[in-house]
Specification:
mainly alpha; 9% strand; two-stranded antiparallel ribbon
Length: 150
């Protein structure tokens, strides 16, 4: 870890709050990314879409939840599309949380890019969250004199 040349970009409470927000965003994004991977495998390997509700086209039976070929369920909620949308928006929140923590910690641009990539590689958001959390705690403990006190 390089020597700190400048102070932090906030008080200890602000930095710890940004770290908690980042932790929540990292876990939420990681879970949704894993669901997205499952959805992509189902869609492109097996030609299956997840549906909730609706009616099965061939049998006319009511549906609670099913995996079916596209167009085989009518009047249903497309869970696969919901996973795509929710992951996309959670990644935006993850990027916001990353930027907030990065700017408070005054890390370099390389650190921002590495943390941001945590939301697009499966399982990496969990790894990055742990690493970033440890780094925040260590830097706060090693440099208490550089914290803002307003």
């Amino acid at each position: 870890m390089p020597q700190r040349r400048q102070g932090f970009g906030g008080t200890e409470t602000q930095i710890r709050g940004a770290a908690v927000f980042f932790r929540i965003a990292a876990y939420a994004t990681g879970v949704m990314l894993l669901l997205l991977v499952v959805e992509m495998v189902l869609k492109y390997a097996f030609n299956l879409i997840a549906y909730a509700g609706g009616t099965m086209l061939r049998t006319g039976e009511a549906n609670v939840f099913t995996l079916a070929e596209p167009g085989m369920v009518v009047d249903a909620f497309n869970v696969s599309i919901a996973v795509l949308i929710v992951h996309g928006w959670l990644y935006v929140v993850y990027l916001l949380a990353t930027f907030m923590l990065w700017s408070r910690m005054r890390w370099d641009l390389k650190q921002l890019i590495l943390i941001a990539l945590g939301g697009v590689v499966p399982f990496l958001s969990f790894v990055m969250e742990k690493k970033v959390h440890q780094q925040v705690v260590e830097e706060l403990q090693k440099n208490p004199q550089q914290l803002r006190r307003y």
